[in-house]
Structures are given as structure tokens and as C-alpha cells.
């Protein structure tokens, strides 16, 4: 069976990684405009690096939970395309063989000048030179607000081909990820939302399973795998 799964911050929350709350415009006590936009990086790259150095350290300390491990098991039984909005590597460490990071990864660095990519160090600094061009334009390889998510052609193709499309731990407030369920449903997929509470796009799903990811995801995988 062809299954496409989209995961959001809710799947990593039980591993101790705080979710982003858009309602107050703050992320870890910082304005989104200051730490998650190209303009914020241009104004104060040192602040942005300090912010993501802390996020990287938090992610390194976190451990995969039962929901991450359940999706790895699902991949062993079905043809799974796993898409995540998360920038941590808990899916990979939980055993998933292939993960599409549509919003980038804390483990990667990007040159804001030439576009060169390389593995990020645990601590990054504004003066760090790019290994490609040598300019001090190193930034986290994270898709910020106002930027285009990665791998969208591959993501749309996986959504269109899916027999089942599931969204796990997503708010339904960040586009284009929030539009994937509607697209999947129009293409004929069975759609299911697994979340602590109904998302902003709950109406796009035919089925809802509500509760902590560490409970509802393993139970859902059990039902699919037998």
C-alpha cells in the first residue's frame, strides 16, 4: 500500500522539543521576524545563530519516541513516503530509512551567498566562512518564513500517488503543508489526521484520531500492519 505521511512539531513534542506557537508571534521568547526570516538574519546574524545553536543542542539531547519508531515500522511493511516539517533528526534516529525535510534541517548549513551546503557544526557563528566561496555568510539550512519549502515537486507527486495520506502532529496553519491533505483527498486518498486536537484544516480529513502521538500513532500503525 502506498502511504504518504506528513509530520509536524507535535510528533517531537513528547521527546522534549518545544512546539512553535504562532498565536503570540513568539518562538522561545523571540519574535519570529527576528529569528526565522531572511530579514532577521540580515539584521542580526549573531542572534539567529545563537537561537539555532540552542535548537540544535536541544535536538541533539532529545530521543526518538514511540511515534517515530512506529513510523519506521510502517516503512518496513508498506511503501511509505515520510515528509516532515520538523528540522530535527528524530525520524532518522528512530529508524526511518528516508525522510523528506521540507523545511530544512538543523544538521545542515547553507551559504546565503553562493548556496553551498555542508554538515553543520553543533555551534555555528556569523563569521564562519563558507567552505565553497569563503565568504562569512553561513546560515542554518532552515526554510524561514517567506522562503519556498524544499522538494515540493517530489512532495506533490507523493501526495497524488498516495492511497492513504496521514498528517501527524500538525497545526494546519503553515502553507503549503496545510494544503496537502486537501490535495490528497481530491486525488482519491483516504485521509487521516492524528493529533492532540483538531487542526485548522481538520475538515480536509475523513478520519480523526485524537490523543498523544506516542499513543495514537503506534495504534494506527498496528492497524495497518496487523
Automatic annotation (TrEMBL):
**Residues annotated as domain Deacetylase sirtuin-type:** 1-226
Q: What is its EC number?
A: 2.3.1.286
Catalysed reaction(s)?
N(6)-acetyl-L-lysyl-[protein] + NAD(+) + H2O = 2''-O-acetyl-ADP-D-ribose + nicotinamide + L-lysyl-[protein]; N(6)-succinyl-L-lysyl-[protein] + NAD(+) + H2O = 2''-O-succinyl-ADP-D-ribose + nicotinamide + L-lysyl-[protein]
Can the keyword Transferase be found in this entry's annotation?
Answer: yes
Q: What class of enzyme is it?
A: transferase
User: Where is the protein localized?
Assistant: Cytoplasm
Binding of substrate: at which residues? 52, 55
Under the heading Gene3D superfamilies, the entry gives: SIR2/SIRT2 'Small Domain (3.30.1600.10), TPP-binding domain (3.40.50.1220)
The entry's Zn(2+)-binding residues are 111, 114, 130, 133
- Which PROSITE patterns does the entry link to? SIRTUIN (PS50305)
Which molecular function term from Gene Ontology is one that the record holds?
Answer: NAD-dependent protein lysine deacetylase activity
Pfam families on file = SIR2
Q: Which organism is it from?
A: Paracoccus simplex
State its cofactor. Zn(2+)
> Which family does the entry's similarity section mention?
Belongs to the sirtuin family. Class III subfamily.
Free-text comment about domains: 2 residues (Tyr-52 and Arg-55) present in a large hydrophobic pocket are probably involved in substrate specificity. They are important for desuccinylation activity, but dispensable for deacetylation activity.
Q: Which residues of this UniProt protein bind NAD(+)?
A: 8-27, 85-88, 169-171, 195-197, 213
Keywords (alphabetical) are:
Acyltransferase, Cytoplasm, Metal-binding, NAD, Transferase, Zinc
Q: What HAMAP family does this protein's entry cite?
A: Sirtuin_ClassIII (MF_01121)
Predominant place of localization: cytoplasm
Name used for this protein in its record: NAD-dependent protein deacylase
Free-text remark on how the cofactor is bound = Binds 1 zinc ion per subunit.
According to its UniProt entry, the function of this protein is described as: NAD-dependent lysine deacetylase and desuccinylase that specifically removes acetyl and succinyl groups on target proteins. Modulates the activities of several proteins which are inactive in their acylated form.
Amino acid at each position: 500500500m502506498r502511504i504518504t505521511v506528513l509530520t509536524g512539531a507535535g510528533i517531537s513534542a513528547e521527546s522534549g522539543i518545544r512546539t512553535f506557537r504562532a498565536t503570540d508571534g513568539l518562538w522561545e521568547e523571540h519574535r519570529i521576524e527576528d529569528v526565522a526570516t531572511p530579514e532577521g538574519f540580515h539584521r542580526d546574524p549573531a542572534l539567529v545563530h545563537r537561537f539555532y545553536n540552542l535548537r540544535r543542542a536541544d535536538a541533539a539531547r532529545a530521543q526518538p519516541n514511540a511515534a517515530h519508531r512506529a513510523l519506521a515500522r510502517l516503512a518496513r511493511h508498506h511503501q511509505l513516503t515520510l515528509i516532515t516539517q520538523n528540522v530535527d533528526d528524530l525520524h532518522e534516529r528512530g529508524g526511518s530509512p528516508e525522510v523528506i525535510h521540507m523545511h530544512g534541517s538543523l544538521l545542515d548549513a547553507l551559504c546565503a551567498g553562493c548556496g553551498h551546503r555542508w554538515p553543520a557544526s553543533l555551534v555555528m557563528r556569523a563569521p564562519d566562512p563558507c567552505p565553497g566561496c569563503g565568504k562569512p555568510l553561513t546560515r542554518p539550512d532552515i526554510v524561514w518564513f517567506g522562503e519556498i519549502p524544499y522538494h515540493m515537486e517530489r512532495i506533490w507527486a507523493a501526495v497524488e500517488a498516495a492511497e492513504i495520506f496521514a498528517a501527524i502532529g500538525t497545526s494546519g496553519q503553515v502553507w503549503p503543508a496545510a494544503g496537502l491533505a486537501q490535495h490528497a483527498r481530491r486525488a482519491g486518498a483516504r485521509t487521516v489526521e492524528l493529533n492532540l486536537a483538531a487542526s485548522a484544516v481538520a475538515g480536509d480529513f475523513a478520519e480523526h484520531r485524537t490523543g498523544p502521538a506516542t499513543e495514537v500513532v503506534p495504534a494506527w500503525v498496528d492497524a495497518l500492519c496487523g
